[in-house]
Sequence to fold (131 residues):
Amino acid sequence: MKRSVKPLVLCFCCALLFLPFMTAGPTMAQCNMTSVALDAAVASCAAGDLDCFVALAKSNVSCAANIAWMYVILYAPDNPDAVLNAFLAGLPSAYADDLSASIGAAYRANQAEQNAGSTTSTNEYPYTYGN
Fold:
């Protein structure tokens, strides 16, 4: 008696459809907070309170990278590694790459802004003499 291969092929095709979702895990989760909601949540933290930002990220892990980015942009810490370590300590390791990328991008943006300001003649020579 010969068995049909159709059920086997069908199972294989279904498995291929769901494989990307199973392997990607939480990093495929997308932040569901609007920018207004994110701004309001961040405003509830005292200025520079890293623990508050980490707590916000814990309560909405899909937005953790955005919250970490916002902290670095707002407070321009000298050591982004300390910020990254604080977020990594409070969140699942599956978010490490996203957190590292967002904190690094925010830090580089802050550095670029500071460097741009320091190379303008207005900032280098704030006082005029003579005349």
Q: What stands out?
A: Residues 7-28, 125-129 have pLDDT under 50 and may be disordered. The longest helix spans residues 96-118. The CA atoms of residues 31 and 63 lie 5 Å apart.
